[in-house]
Write a structure and sequence with these properties.
Lambda Exonuclease, Chain A; 43% helix; binds iron/sulfur cluster; alpha/beta; Nucleotidyltransferase, domain 5; 5-stranded mixed β-sheet; 3 domains; 20 helices
Length: 497
Amino acid sequence: MFYFSKTKYCDFKQCPKIPWLKKYRPEEYVVDAETQARFTAGNEVGDLAMGLFGDFVEVTAYRADGSLDLNRMKMLTRKYLAEGRENICEASFDYQGLYCAVDILRRTPHGYEIYEVKSSTSPEHRVYVVDTSYQKYVLEKCGLKVNKVCIVTIDPSYVYDGVLDLHRFFKITDITPLVEEEIGTVGESLKEAQKVMSSKEEPDIDLSESCNEPYPCAFFGYCTRNLPSPSVFHLYRLAYGKKLELYLKGIYSFEDILKDGGRLNEMRRRQVEYALEDKGTYIDKKGIREFLQTLTFPLYFLDFETVQPVIPRYVGTKPYQQIPVQYSLHILREDGTLSHREFLGRSEEDPRRALAERLIEDIPKDVCVLAYNKAFECTRIKELSEVFPDLSEHLLNIKENIKDLLDPFQSGYYYNRAMGGSFSIKSVLPAIYPDDPELNYHNLEGVHNGSEAMELFPRLKDMPQEERAEAEHHLLKYCELDTFAMVKVYEELKRVS
Ligand code: SF4
């Protein structure tokens, strides 16, 4: 018997090798933080959308081991259909091994309506049509008449006013005509899928645009395992399509790139040349000196941590808005004295006012502030100034005085091969200080990157006191290392200049 689900079907339509690898090489599946965040947001939004049409029944059921009990879900669906329930969430169907669960199945006098809930703010993804066409196909094979198919996405312009209004938060888009066009291809695709899945032989499929569309493929590492490292796919800030073009021309390694004689911008050329030959550290003293001359003591090294809730929690905020919840600030005086300030909001309330007030207490007007990739800090401060007009003059003054410590690296004034073509502080720091345990993010406890901080902060409010104190300590230490790292990077620039 051939078993397939809508996830496998969508995977198959992205690339036939994906469901094959999931079945035969599951250990090669690598989920990055971004994909995991998308899954988490999807679950959160899916639960919320269940109430979109008023009363509903949900069929989700689990076995003792925590896995989904599909048989029970299908049995409950049959029961609720027979009872004529109006809204069935996670309605589950199976037609000869083709399984699908519908986010919301609505019963109307004219037939059934499928509502597929997405955590995205755009309904216009081809994959949504593919996904719902499979659902309609399975439901119709099970004898249901489906007369409407809709995508439920999030309206990015929705502003939370204290009471979540599902009808304004969600946006419903009728995609029935697109599904009608697509559905004729489902049967044929399933036949092909059956052939691929029943073979023990890995499909012979080369890299293509599909490896990045609609989502970066979790098997990319596996499928590029035989390429030299670094390869064209490591080139600095080059669009995936351009890298793919080189690859398809047979240009794989950095040597191939040079041999090909193709034009590289200065940064990429340096990346390639330094990777091929360890030339130590490239230093443009003049450029670095010019950058340092724009700075004045005392120097305020600032870094924000933010959360980005898909469902807004604070009045006046929108879905996916970046909310600053924490900052670290190192202050370096001309005599070398270093002091530290920090702020961590309380996750049960909107932390922005307290953060903005502390920020203007900690950073006087007209001082030199340094951020790493300053656009992020500048945008957050500008947003705070708009929400709190009484603090705006001081906040905007801070924003105007922010200099970017990323500039000398992005401008190509300092480079060594250990940076591997990346100028993020997480790449630059170990490239400058390779063996310093004090500067190693891996040596931190609990929180090692921004994604972990973002995930931990909202959970603080539900933790017992002791656990919370420990988690807060981890958050503070992580953010502190970010600005201490900036101080160390600054010291290195000063040393080499
Ligand atoms: S990396 Fe590309 S070729 Fe490999 S499975 Fe994914 S989409 Fe297919």
